[in-house]
Amino acid sequence: MATTAPDGRAGITADLVQRLISTQFPQWAGLPVIPVPVDGWDNRTYRLGDDMTARLPTGHGYVPAVEKEHVWLPRLAPELPVDIPPVLAKGEPGEGYPHPWSVRGWLPGETALAERIGDMAQFAVSVGEFIRALQRCDTTHGPAAGEHSWYRGASPAYYDEETRRCLDLLNGRIDTVLAQQVWESALAATWNGDPVWFHGDIASGNLLVADGKLAAVIDFGTSGVGDPACDLVIAWAMFSGESRQVFRDTVAQDRGTWARARGWALWEAALHLSECIDTDPEKAAGYRRLIGEVLADHREFGA
Questions:
Q1: Is the pLDDT of residue 4 over 90?
Q2: Comparing C-alpha atoms, which of 31, 27, 5, 4 is closest to residue 17?
């Protein structure tokens, strides 16, 4: 999820990026380097001139995404219905910065906030069509879900201990009895299908809109090949009513996949809610709402 990040996090500054560009890609040395207004947590991103960005991982755990995206984004792009980040170059450690990094083409558009979307139901169809197109991409030699994807695309059981700990902390503050049922259903719904490509973080912060419509999908750092359930969390995080139903119809996933998706949504929301419930009422209200939507969905569609 995107957040406003202070300049200099992990020692990354515009001056550092300028030096890396000058030494490794002198053809772009004269271009201005400016932080983007809304940044993610995994990487620091800077505008490089008008048409490019420089993207630097903020820690060791985010480094595998650099090579993965460098190799796979150009292969996936022709098969997808909207733009994804164009890969232009891969930088090496230098100037005191210890990680590889990347140069990408700039994609026009704005973060997909509700007020920027013309028709939420049609937007939900477009997101669903993107997910389906991604699932149809060739998985040969693709990166199997694992540590590089933060275990998106694997079983939600990887986060079993953490989820149960968070539900214990939230006991008496949400319906933890029903939440436990959601979690147990997710663990029981074993993935038996053929592995497919997943994005890993289909969320409003990684979707760009132009003229009210889906224009691009960014940040494939948690992508890989495996179980697509993690890509359905947006059903409750962003959609509701008609838009949720058309998204469900468009992605056309089975009951087990939806059960695991509810598990992924519950894990993430319970983790964040347990961290902010006593310190940030506004943020906590959002996670409470998400958990409530997931529990209601389980009542209607779950086992």
A1: no
A2: 31
Percent helix, strand and coil across the chain, each to the nearest 5: 50, 15, 35
Q: In a 3-state reduction of DSSP, which class is residue 28?
A: helix
Show Cβ contacts of residue 125 under 8 Å, excluding neighbours closer than 6 positions: 246, 247, 250
Assess contact for 87 and 102: CB atoms under 8 A.
Answer: yes
Cα(195)–Cα(236) distance, integer angstroms: 24
Confidence (pTM): 0.94
For residue 86, give the DSSP letter: P
Q: Which pLDDT score is estimated for 303?
A: 60
Strand runs (DSSP E) across the chain, as ranges?
A: 33-35, 43-48, 52-57, 87-91, 101-105, 110-111, 196-198, 207-210, 213-217, 224-226
Question: 98: which residues sit within 8 A by CB, 6+ positions away?
Answer: none
Report the distance separating Cα 90 and Cα 18, nearest Å.
Answer: 15
**What domains are defined for the chain?**
9-107 (3.30.200.20), 111-301 (3.90.1200.10)
Pairing of strands 43-48, 87-91: unpaired
Q: Which pLDDT tens digit goes with each residue over 130-160?
A: 999 999 999 999 999 999 999 999 999 999 9
- pLDDT exceeds cutoff 80 at 2: no
Closest CA relative to residue 2, chosen from 110, 90, 145: 110
Higher pLDDT pick, 5 / 208: 208
Query: Residue 103 and residue 53: Cα distance in Å, rounded?
Result: 6
Rounded CA-CA distance 187/246 in Å is 26
Residues near 2 by beta carbon (within 8 Å), at least 6 away in sequence: 38, 39, 40, 41, 111, 205, 206
